[in-house]
């Protein structure tokens, strides 16, 4: 059933300009329509806020913020916003119309995609987000539904409705904005965001494209949120055996639960993606994941019906005006986002003489080609299958096929055994002349690097050494050391000499120097307190304002860190000065019973001492008090009561 038939906007002219032709999609906040701009005569997409939300100022503000934000992002991979306005109860955005499908459609139909397709989609997404991040914005709701793939293969990012300026306060109250499967841990725990939340979401996107499933699942959104906070995203190779380790490390880097361990924005992640892609072979990039759904639906429908040509055909085919769009490649290009055919329009028939000429030309070409093949067929052969063969086996197979072995190259591989062929040029199956040479690429096994010994080196030099050796400087923590100078490396994690993949992050523990016992200067004059702390190698800071304390005015009332603490040389101790004890009025307890006197004085904040003497051993009434009732005394001081 066509849901657009019951939509009151379909067929209407919105704001006197936009003719609404069909409904494309509906979400919780807005509905998207295909429309015609009657003023400029162009097809566009109209995003219309649900009228029930238009009365909510926060929703309208977010809606308008999308228009203003995207209008500032002049980037080929961002869906452009042309106009924003209102018509009665309708608030709308006029946007670029993309004929094609969403990444969600691709994953729904394909299950998972090849690494090449996943990276081809991810790179323009990161380019778009990078432009947003460098312009000071965070998307905050990256998910497959917001990645549009045009029929021409162009990838664009849409729906900046949750976009926020990096400089604005992004904490949320009562709800977390975004989609639970793609939320970064800090979005869930603190409700705060920066470009690294988009980096996290893109890591989840990559995992989902490679494996066909989300990394965290549960029976409720709360369970998914809990896993984002407490569980790492697993390596995609756990579900796709043989996936290059570079892709595992890319996902791990982007989805690190600690924001500081992720690339700082989409531009940095894009650089990592390109670096990870560079050493991958065609076989690795084009490997079909076992989760890919290549079979047909049970009802006979083609599962590739919504996949754009760019994701299914290595090279675009020539356009023939007389051939239906997609003919010959098994792809139904009219399945989604296509205008319906105009009734009554028929394709003009070819003239009969043109058909005859075409048949004659084909026969001539076939005849000439057959003759050439007959003459030269004995001079050509196909490159035999060589993958997974040892170098010796591959050379023998080439020799038996009448081919020579040219250059033998070596390359690292995390998935192919050392000494085994991982590629050839030309590739297996290629047709080449007899005795031509074939270049072999043989695996060196996993590329590993020994963690260098940087103990005792200054932090900057240690980080430079790690980078020079092909490793990444990781998280830096600091602790006291009696043996290592302040600012120099105590140890690394993993330890020096450990083998790690190139590009792995190495954590560093840096010395804070020898610990200093912080002296107790409470109750001292300010000058003497400063002198004692300075002599100990510490700096002094005086807190603003003074507090009441047991010490006289101008003395040190308290310090931070306090007595018994340890600090590093050059650390700062904060001193708070006293303005003297708090003076309070003393209750009059003469004539009261001993118990009542205790209650009154202690309740006022005083300590109580009793003086009974011989005459008061059996008495129960207060005859005198050391400070008369009504006078003022320091809070916490002792009042002595005489009992008779």
From TrEMBL:
Keywords: ATP-binding, Kinase, Membrane, Nucleotide-binding, Serine/threonine-protein kinase, Transferase, Transmembrane, Transmembrane helix. The keyword Isomerase does not apply. It is an enzyme of class 2 (transferase). Residues 295-304 have a biased composition (Basic and acidic residues). GO terms for biological process: negative regulation of fatty acid biosynthetic process. It catalyses: L-seryl-[protein] + ATP = O-phospho-L-seryl-[protein] + ADP + H(+); L-threonyl-[protein] + ATP = O-phospho-L-threonyl-[protein] + ADP + H(+). GO terms for molecular function: ATP binding; protein serine/threonine kinase activity. Its EC number is 2.7.11.1. Residues 280-325 are annotated as: Disordered. SUPFAM superfamilies: Penicillin-binding protein 2x (pbp-2x), c-terminal domain (SSF54184), Protein kinase-like (PK-like) (SSF56112). Residues 18-281 form the Protein kinase domain. InterPro entries: Kinase-like_dom_sf, PASTA_dom, Prot_kinase_dom, Ser/Thr_kinase_AS. Residues 377-444, 445-512, 513-579, 580-644 form the PASTA domain. NCBIfam families: PknB_PASTA_kin. This is non-specific serine/threonine protein kinase.
